[in-house]
């Protein structure tokens, strides 16, 4: 599962979601969709802008959890049985 670490990075930089929305010129609803994984994609422009504003690199911003992938696979196997 891919996770966008915006909330953690905001805390590290002592910034708020409101501040980030203002800087990126996006709505809080769209930012929350990214934060909670409700989007199917994110543009390179947004990744670059997030990294610049949150003083991080893409590795800090995006993490992939193999644990969640394994759990989802097990759930699918159980459902198909």
Give a short overview.
Helices cover 64% and strands 7% of the residues. It has 81 residues and is mostly helical.
Number of helices in the DSSP assignment: 6
Strand order of the largest sheet: 1-2
Distance between the termini: 23 Å
- Tell me the strand percentage band: 5-15%
How many E-type strands? 2
Unreliable spans: none
**Secondary-structure-derived class:** mainly alpha
CATH superfamily: lambda repressor-like DNA-binding domains
Question: How large, in whole angstroms, is the Cα Rg?
Answer: 15 Å
The percent of residues in helical segments reads 55-70%
CATH architecture: Orthogonal Bundle
Would you write up a description of this structure?
With 81 residues, this protein is mainly alpha-helical. It has a single domain, classed as lambda repressor-like DNA-binding domains (434 Repressor (Amino-terminal Domain)). The chain is globular and about 45 Å long.
